[in-house]
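Technical note accompanying the year-one report. For the benefit of new consortium partners, we illustrate the data format agreed upon in the data management plan: each record pairs a sequence with a C-alpha cell string. No post-processing was applied to the example shown here.
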Amino acid sequence: MDKCPVCFGDATTKSLEQSALDQISCPRCGKFRIDELAKQPLLTALANDERKIANASGWVREYPDVLVTLETVGKLGVLPTPNYGEKKRKLLEFFQRHSVTLGQHIVLDGSTMNVLVASTWCANSNEVGFLLAASISDELVEKRAGTQYRLTAKGYDYLAQLVVNPTSQIGFCAMWFDDSVNPLWDKAIEPAIRDAGYQPLRIDKKEHANRIDDEIFADIRRSRFVVADFTHGESGVRGGVYFEAGFAQGLGLHVIWICRQDVLATDKLHFDVRQFNFLEWTDENLIDFKHRLQRRIEAILGRGSWRPE
C-alpha cells in the first residue's frame, strides 16, 4: 500500500503510461492525478500541518480526477479554511448527495467517515462529530441507532434556501467570441452543458433587441451556473469574461473555470483567479475535455432535466 501525497493516508498509486503522471486512489481524498515533479514540493507546501492537509484534501475531493501540478501546489498550501457555517453546509450537502431517496439513512462507517472528513474540509472525525452534534441540535440532521444519520425536512429546507435559481436549467457561457475558439463551444462546452441536462446559452448565439450588456446581466441572473473560459489572444485578457464571472459569483452562482492549456501555463491570468481549479483544454483534446466538463457540472450541480425540443 502506498501513501497519498495529499493526506499521507494509505492509498493506491498507478503510473499512467507514456506520461510522468500517477493516478492516486485515496479513501479520503478520492481519485486524482499528480505530476511526479509536484510530489516533493507538495510535501513541503503542506509541511505536515493538519489544517493545510485538511484544506488540500477537501479541495481535491471536490474536484474529481483533478490534475495536481507544480502550479497547483502553490494553491494547495495557502487555501483559506472554510468557516463554521461553510463546513456545516458541506456536511448537509454530503447527506443530500448520498441520499438516493428523501429521508434515507446514511451509515457513517469507517470508509464513509473518511469521505465525510474530506467533504467537509475537516481535520479529523472529531471535528466532523462536532458538526454532526450541532446539526442534530439544530434539528437539521437526525441520528438513529448506531452510526445511522439522515437529513430532516428542516435540513432539506435549509439547503434549498442556499440555492440560487433552483429551478433554472440554463448554463451560461462567458468566453472570447473569436473564430479560434469556436471549436471549443461546438465540440465541448455546448454538448457538455446539454448532455448534463442544462440549456447552453452563449449571448452571441441568442437573438435579442436589447443592449448586449443588459441582456448579459439578465441572462446570468436567470442561470443556474456559469462556465467561464479565460482563453485570450495576443491582445490580452478578456475583461468581459472576468466581469461576467465576478458578477455571477456575486449573485451566488457556481462558476466553472476553464482555460486553454498554453494560456493557463503563462502568468497572464490575473492573480485573483489563479486560486481556482481550472479545467484545462487544448485544441487536440476537445472530446475528452467535453466529458471532463460534463462530469464537473454534474458533480457540482447534479444532472439537470432540460432536453432540446
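Partners are asked to follow this layout when depositing records. The chain has a mean pLDDT of 88.
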